[in-house]
Write a structure and sequence with these properties.
Structural class: alpha/beta
CATH superfamily of the largest domain: Isopropylmalate Dehydrogenase
Shape: globular
Helix content: 40-55%
Order of helices and strands: EHEHHEHEHEEEHEHEHEHEEHHEEH
CATH class of the largest domain: Alpha Beta
Strand order of the largest sheet: 2-1-3-12-11-4-5-10-8-9
């Protein structure tokens, strides 16, 4: 039996609910694949501040780095919005990513056939969309120095080094080699010096991957093209702030932000989480969609642990649940056979994943 240590960070809002469903599904596929998961729960976010006075306790960093992977829910909420910036949940998350060195954020955007009508775009535009946004996660304007503000002015600095661009570019090209062998690098090289460096370095790295077709697009055009013709994209490579915006835009091609997972990976560890936030307005009501978190667990199995068979089971379970008409409230209007609670959806996917005939 293969055993893995998984750090669990449930976080705030709906975080605990969706993580509970992801572990339910993980345990179901583990029983089928001769795997055992040892979970250790640690704190981050507003809940961590309430207990320790720090949104990112050192124990969370230590446990995460000692684990095989991290499964993370969501953090934040209005309760903590008035805290000093360094004490807010979001500051803890940025510090967490930096401490773990997870420099590459992988955000797939897939449109399930069963939910093609859930998108605000025409079915012929979104049917078959399958793209991956590769976002640099621990550089750029969110981390650049100097930064600050006074009464009349605020300032931030967008910085990328050659080495930072090289390592994220390699991630994108390697992923493209396993997909349709196309990379679109998104920047603002017509205006920003930092984007000119980005483009030059990406071109240099591309020479190591002659089978991959490289194109370039300015970020404003990319935002338009994602709506006009999303199927033109395979792998989108971009920096931190552009990737933050474009990946959220791409998520809505599917019709709900509650459907899409993400992975944040580095040399030592990976963090797997839904792309959505903590949604404190619906916390505790049992209506949150757990699919994005469950799909993040599948990414964890595939990318961190190499357990592709178990990951395939989860992907099958999600697709079968949707094909059979099970829906949470956010996607209830689209060919629903039964409206499910958060827990019910998790149980349905777990049961279907366990029955998968590979």
């Amino acid at each position: 039996m293969k055993k893995y240590n998984i750090a669990l960070i449930k976080g705030d809002g709906i975080g605990p609910e969706i993580i509970d469903e992801a572990t339910k599904v993980l345990d179901a596929v583990a029983a089928c694949e001769n795997i055992e998961f040892n979970y250790q729960e640690v704190l981050m976010g507003g809940c961590a501040y309430d207990v320790t006075g720090d949104p990112l306790p050192q124990e969370t960093i230590d446990v995460s780095l000692a684990s095989d992977a991290v499964l993370f829910g969501a953090i934040g909420g209005e309760k903590w919005d008035t805290l000093p910036r360094e004490k807010r949940p979001e500051s803890g998350l940025l510090r967490f990513r930096k401490e773990l060195g997870v420099f590459a954020n992988l955000r797939p955007a897939n449109v399930y056939d069963e939910l093609v009508n859930a998108s605000s775009l025409k079915p012929e535009i979104v049917k078959g969309v399958d793209l991956m946004v590769v976002r640099e996660l621990i550089g750029g304007i969110y981390f650049g120095e100097p930064k600050g503000r006074d009464e009349n002015k605020g300032w931030n600095t967008m910085v990328y080094t050659r080495d930072e661009v090289i390592r994220i570019a390699h991630v994108a090209f390697k992923i493209a080699m396993e997909r349709s062998k196309k990379v679109c690098s998104v920047d603002k090289a017509n205006v920003l010096d930092v984007s000119q460096l980005w483009r030059e370095v990406v071109i240099e790295v591309s020479k190591e991957y002659p089978e991959v077709a490289l194109s370039h697009m300015y970020v404003d055009n990319a935002a338009m093209q994602l709506i006009r013709d999303p199927k033109q994209f395979d792998v989108i490579l971009t920096g931190n702030i552009f990737g933050d915006i474009l990946s959220d835009e791409a998520s809505m091609l599917s019709g709900s932000i509650g459907l899409l997972p993400s992975a944040s990976v580095g040399a030592a560890i990976g963090v797997y989480e839904p792309i959505h936030g903590s949604a404190p307005d619906i916390a505790g009501q049992g209506i949150a969609n757990p699919i994005a978190t469950i799909a993040s667990a599948a990414m964890m199995l595939r990318y961190a642990l190499g357990e592709n068979a178990a990951a395939d089971r989860i992907d099958y379970g999600i697709k079968q649940a949707l094909a059979q008409g099970y829906r949470t409230k956010d996607i209830a209007a689209f060919d629903a056979k039964e409206i499910c609670s958060t827990s019910e959806m998790g149980s349905i996917i777990a049961n279907l994943a366990a029955k998968c005939k590979r």
